[in-house]
């Protein structure tokens, strides 16, 4: 047998992952081994000669998944406002700019003023993320450094992989909730980056689950001087960037009236587009601007649910994918009411089908050749890729989101059917699984994708650490 790093975890059963857009790969009866650092060291058919040797050697330490269940990579949430989790599911009747003033800024200011509240909210947020299978999350925080360190610590202690953004905003419609100027804001961003990294510096590199992110809230809350300096800081400190881009008509028009150019051009001239940047929403981008994102390797956090509430149009998902824009999914809590990325997957498909329906109807009366011929719809398999491997790539997690040697073992155990009790798990019902059952089918996975919930999650691991 080939020598490998000592095995800390071994599992035998069905593995499901999406190595490419639209490709759901079902690896039936496979053996997967994980080392003590949380990395996958072996993946192969359990019937292979080397697998049989491992199984014989490891004996009862091999965890065997019951039939009717499978391992899946954990979900990635590319856009979540951590302090807004406090009032999730309220106030969604207002337009974006009013909603920010009435709810978001007040909540963020309150949580900055009360460290005990921040700790309570953020620990609960981490628990909820684990419940819904989110193993990696890109977070917007608040403007106060200490509060964001509470957020980072809550995620690290819970075992969730988190990219934490301290807001940079030297302008605000709420006078009490902004930084005093661009110099103060820049110093604060530098301080957070240093202190966030130092908070995990004593840990082995593979155990450092948190990273700081430079986070200009969006163009209307940032001066040109601040944006220019943040672009320089990102380059000098090798720090990722996140923001909101072209989210609503009102915000887009505000930027054009004030700056004379679209917000994407504002980000571009300040070196805030590039590899390592994730821009949320992007609903008002043109075809040319999508190509600009692709050329600059800038990723998009697609938030279909919050777009329905706060943007006047849907994100052109199919066009972005066709142009090679890296795309993942975001919950956008609290602009979106659900923290579950399964909700985002379903809304992404539903929105794309509505877009395709509109296109098809318009094409019936349009002159031949004047309309698109390729479908704008995506299917569930593509959405599953966006929530796992696609999201990981958008976050720069090259070795995550799939089951391969060298990848981090970030996985969730999904249970669909209990053969002992002859019943579906949670909300799922199956009426055709009898004694001739030969293993997990694509139809069973699709049923879970459409109807499954937290009751189907029987286990979860991040970097090999068991969280459920």
Describe the secondary structure blueprint for this structure.
Blueprint lengths: L6 E14 L2 E13 L4 E6 L3 H10 L3 E3 L4 E5 L1 E7 L14 H18 L1 H17 L2 E7 L4 H14 L2 E8 L13 H18 L10 E7 L7 H14 L2 E6 L3 H11 L3 H7 L7 E5 L5 H9 L3 E4 L1 H7 L6 H6 L4 E3 L11 H25 L14 H15 L16 E5 L1 E2 L4 E2 L17 H10 L5 E6 L2 E2 L2
Helix pairs in contact: 3-4, 4-5, 5-6, 12-13
Describe the protein in words.
With 468 residues, the protein is an alpha/beta fold. It is built from 14 helices and 18 strands. It has helices spanning 49-58, 96-113, 115-131, 145-158, 182-199, 224-237, 249-259, 263-269, 287-295, 304-310, 317-322, 341-365, 380-394, 442-451; strands spanning 7-20, 23-35, 40-45, 62-64, 69-73, 75-81, 134-140, 161-168, 210-216, 240-245, 277-281, 299-302, 327-329, 411-415, 417-418, 423-424, 457-462, 465-466. The chain has an eight-stranded parallel sheet. A four-stranded mixed sheet has the order 3-2-1-4. The protein is globular.
Strand percentage: 15-25%
User: What is the CATH third-level topology name of the largest domain?
Assistant: TIM Barrel
Low-confidence stretches: none
Report Rg: 23 Å
Count, helices: 14
What are the salient characteristics of this protein?
468 residues; alpha/beta; Urease, subunit C, domain 1; TIM Barrel; 2 domains; eight-stranded parallel β-sheet; four-stranded mixed β-sheet; 14 helices
């Amino acid at each position: 047998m080939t020598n490998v790093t000592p095995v800390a975890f071994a599992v035998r059963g069905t593995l499901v992952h999406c190595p490419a857009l639209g490709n759901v790969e079902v690896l039936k009866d496979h053996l997967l081994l994980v080392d003590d650092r949380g990395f996958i060291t072996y993946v192969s058919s359990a019937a292979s000669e080397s697998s049989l040797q491992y199984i014989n050697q490891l004996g009862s330490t091999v965890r065997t998944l019951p039939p009717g269940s499978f391992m899946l990579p954990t979900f990635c949430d590319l856009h979540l406002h951590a302090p807004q989790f406090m009032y999730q599911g309220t106030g969604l009747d207002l337009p974006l700019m009013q909603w920010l003033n009435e709810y978001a800024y007040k909540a963020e200011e309150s949580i900055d003023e009360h460290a005990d509240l921040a700790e309570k909210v953020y620990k609960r947020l981490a628990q909820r993320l684990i419940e819904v299978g989110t193993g990696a999350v890109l977070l917007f925080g608040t403007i106060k450094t200490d509060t964001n360190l509470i957020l980072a610590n809550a995620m690290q202690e819970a075992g969730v992989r988190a990219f934490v953004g301290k807001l940079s905003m030297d302008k605000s419609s709420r006078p009490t909730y902004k930084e005093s100027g661009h110099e103060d804001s820049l110093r604060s961003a530098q301080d957070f980056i240093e202190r966030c990294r130092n908070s995990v510096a004593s840990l082995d590199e593979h155990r450092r689950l948190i990273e700081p992110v430079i986070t200009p809230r969006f163009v209307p809350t940032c001066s040109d001087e601040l944006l220019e300096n943040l672009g320089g800081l990102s380059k000098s400190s090798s720090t990722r960037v996140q923001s909101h881009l072209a989210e609503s008509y009102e915000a887009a028009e505000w930027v054009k009236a004030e700056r004379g150019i679209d917000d994407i051009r504002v980000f571009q001239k300040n070196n805030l587009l590039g590899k390592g940047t994730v821009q949320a929403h992007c609903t008002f981008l043109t075809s040319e601007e999508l190509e600009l994102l692709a050329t600059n390797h800038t990723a998009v956090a697609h938030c279909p649910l919050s777009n329905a509430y706060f943007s006047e149009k849907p994100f052109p998902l199919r066009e972005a994918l066709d142009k090679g824009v890296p795309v993942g999914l975001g919950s956008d809590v609290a602009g979106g009411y659900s923290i579950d990325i399964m909700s985002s997957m379903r809304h992404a498909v539903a929105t794309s089908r509505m877009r395709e329906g509109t296109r098809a109807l318009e094409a019936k009366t349009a002159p031949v050749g004047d309309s698109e011929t390729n479908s704008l719809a995506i299917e569930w398999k593509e959405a599953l890729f966006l929530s796992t491997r696609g999201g990981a790539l958008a976050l720069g997690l090259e070795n995550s989101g799939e089951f391969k040697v060298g990848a981090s073992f970030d996985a969730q155990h999904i249970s669909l059917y209990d053969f002992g009790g002859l019943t579906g798990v949670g909300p799922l019902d199956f009426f055709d699984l009898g004694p001739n059952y030969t293993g997990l089918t694509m139809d069973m996975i699709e049923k879970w994708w459409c109807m499954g919930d937290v009751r189907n999650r029987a286990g979860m691991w991040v970097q090999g650490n068991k969280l459920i």
